[in-house]
User: Fold this.
Amino acid sequence: MSFRASFAGLICLPLLAGCSAQQSAFNPSGHDAEQINILFWVMTLGGAAIFVLVLVLAAIAITGSTRVRQRLAGEGLINWLGIGFPVVVLTALLIYGFVLLQAGAQAEAGNTGLRIAVSGEQWWWRVTYRTADGREIEAANEIHLPVGQPVTLELTTADVIHSFWAPSIAGKLDMIPGRTNQMTVTATRPGITRGQCAEYCGGAHAFMAFHVVAQTPAAFEAWLEREAADAQPPQGEGPRRGQELFLTSGCGGCHTVRGTPADGTIGPDLTHVGGRHSLAAATLPNSAEAFAAFIVNNQHIKPENRMPPYGIFSEEQLDDLASYLEGLR
Amino acid sequence: MSKEKIVKVRQLTRWQRIGVASLFVMGALVLAGGAFILSGIYNIGASRDHWSITNFIITILRDRSVAVASGGIEVPELDDPDLYQLGEQHFLGTCTTCHGTPGEPLNPLYSHMLPKPPDLTGAFEHYDAREVFWVVNHGLKYTGMPAWPAAHRPDEVWSVVSYLRRLNKIGPENAAIEDSAAEQAQNLNTCARCHEAAGQPPVSDLVPRLDGLSEAYLRRALEEYRGGQRASGIMAPIAFDMSDEEIASNAASYASLPPPAGRQNSNANIALGRQIARQGLPEQDVPACQSCHGVNPAASRLEGQSERYMATQLKLWQHAGHRDASAEGRLMSVIGQRLTEAQGKAVSAYYATQNAEEAQ
Assistant:
């Protein structure tokens, strides 16, 4: 298989995932998404019933006997079905919609005090967990949620307008320059779902996705503790050489690996990158091969992304670097 | 009764007759020209000068072409020692082969070229700075004058233009040439002609200081000049003549020298430069220079380097395609394009004031 074909394969993986239930508003695993799902079905089924009723009446009006057609043409039917029925149904639907979506109200934040700041950047997501005790834990391209606890997302952007959309969890909300938009979400069952940027934001917009990992509160707490910790020192000869390369090749100018001198803030925090479910904002699977491919060929895999092409490494050096990064769990 | 035949004679108009006649004349000329070319009568030898009519026509053709093509070129400040001292060294090492050392007789080998390479002391008598620049940059067809052997390096071409103007202004007898020019010209491969060594600064601030640069970087630079990945009309002909062993030994000898000390500079925006060097400009996606430079021997050490040299290189990186043929060049080119020219100057000025030891 050619180099290019294997890349095409790598790139298609997340696209295929998009076709499954992983990123589907019909497969809700969040409170808001469930409401939206119910609203969708009520609207669709109700609309379908009215549509069928209209068709039946039209058919009767065309083919029915003279007596029936005279009754249809009467003023009573127009008053009841033409005015009374829409007024009642539409008013009821409107009130139902308002109540269901709690229009104008901010969903109540949970008592855990956890807030998650998500900043859209061309073309990835900077995710900062702000805990009640004032800690700020930075990660990227993945949002972990404790099941059953409402969590407030603070949505901002570092450059252009993005739109945060995790269809299985909640509706969309735009990220507008100069504003912080808030959205409170509650995951209702554990599982991994996918979301993506829903507002065209430039060249690699289609490759700006993320995973939502809903966990039981206990698992979430444990994960957050691990995420807050510094990076683990590299284990083994290859990863050790990889770390040396990472620190001397400029990677730390843009990326942070806590616990090492690498403290760049331009690109995603890589402290626990090996533990994430994808690379490059859900563009590639998380594997050593994908790390190596992205380091060298990132402009082909994710065109126009802000990382320079790193063609300076030998095959062995790339392997070392990839094994180091993969080991950052 | 026999039918009377009616014969119509069409009379050609005056202009039609002239047209037919000119077709005949043109045909005759083409035939005569073809016969002249194929007969071999024409003497192609350089031993015989052009006919005066040929000389007359090609001189006008050349001067009109140069004058029109060079219109709109912006001339930098030419009375600049950094420019003309570098230009002088390149001139003595390269141009004198054909044009001869100014003020001295031309090697008979080259004086028998047609046209004979002119003594360039007079270049500025016939042409202005724009035109001289254009000729040095693009060369001249049918004369043996080559184009500048590197694309996108007008900065180097101006050094030669600046030297030629100075040569014209003060005359060959006064235009520096401190050591014997002939001797210098023979030592073309001696890096020290321009770069100097052992604590002496280079002949010009446009020339990088090589003392104490890492061996890996020096070797890569020379290999890139030799292979054409790094464009320089000055370095390319020199590196072309170097063997792998010469590259290795030159790189090793410069790498073993102590690095130069930084120079005072009170004018520049040192604070901005320090910020770019140490923290980068995250809002412009510019990482700190020192995340590579200073920690990685493959990236050049910048402390104490010449400010003008660094600013020139950053300017090359600011244009896509000017310095991104190698993997390292592509990497740096992305960063260079994110810096404004003022920021490039500030960070160059900052590094020029630093001492290598301090930064360790």
Observations:
- The longest strand of chain A covers residues 115-121.
